[in-house]
Amino acid sequence: MINLAISVGQTETPEAVMFWILGPIAVLSALGMLLVKKAVHSAILLAWVMITLAIFYIAQDAVFLGIVQVVVYTGAVMMLFLFILMLVGVDSSDSLTETIPGLRPIAITAAVGFGGLMVSLIARATLGREMVGLTVANADGNVQAIAKKLFSTYVWPFEVVSALLITA
C-alpha cells in the first residue's frame, strides 16, 4: 500500500496524519531530553523518542526493526540506564557545575559544526534521487548480500565484535 503511494508521488493520508502528529512530538521530546534539568526526566523523554521511532519504523513496513527498537533499546538499554541513575543517585546541584571552564562554547561550536556536516551529507545523499519503497530497494536481495559479505569477507571482524559484546 505504501509502495503504491510512493510510486504515485504521494503519501497516504493515515501515514501523513501519523507523521504530522508524532513527528513534532518526537522532536519536542528530543529537545526536552536535552533541556530538562533532571536526568530521570531526560531518560523518560529519550524512551519516548525511541518509542516514536519504533512507530515510524512499523509504519514504513519495517516491523522487525520497530519491534527490536522497542525490545532492545527502549526495554533493555533504557531500563539499564534508569537503573544506573537510580543506583548512583544524581544530585541536581552536581550537574550544574562546569568542570572545565570554557568548555560550553567549544561544545556548542562542535555541535553546530557536526549538525551542518550531517545536513550537508544527508542533502548530498538524497537530493536528486528518486524515492523508492522498501520492496523496490530490497528487490536485489539486500539482506542476502549483507549476510554474504558479513559471513565471508568480514567474518573475522564480526567474530571479534561478537566476542567484545559478549565480554562487555
Shape: globular
Radius of gyration: 20 Å
At the first level of CATH, the class of the largest domain is Mainly Alpha
Overall number of structural domains: 2
Structure description:
With 168 residues, the chain is mainly α. The chain has two domains: 1-91 and 112-137, NADH-ubiquinone/plastoquinone oxidoreductase chain 6, subunit NuoJ (Four Helix Bundle (Hemerythrin (Met), subunit A)), CATH 1.20.120.1200; 138-168, no CATH class. It is built from eight helices and no strands. It has helices spanning 2-8, 13-35, 39-59, 63-88, 103-126, 134-137, 142-153, 155-167. It is globular. The model has no long low-confidence stretch (mean pLDDT 83).
Pick out its properties.
Four Helix Bundle (Hemerythrin (Met), subunit A), single chain, 2 domains, 168 residues, 0% strand, mainly alpha, globular
Short description:
By secondary structure, the chain is mainly alpha-helical.
Write the layout of secondary structure elements.
Layout: H1 2-8, H2 13-35, H3 39-59, H4 63-88, H5 103-126, H6 134-137, H7 142-153, H8 155-167
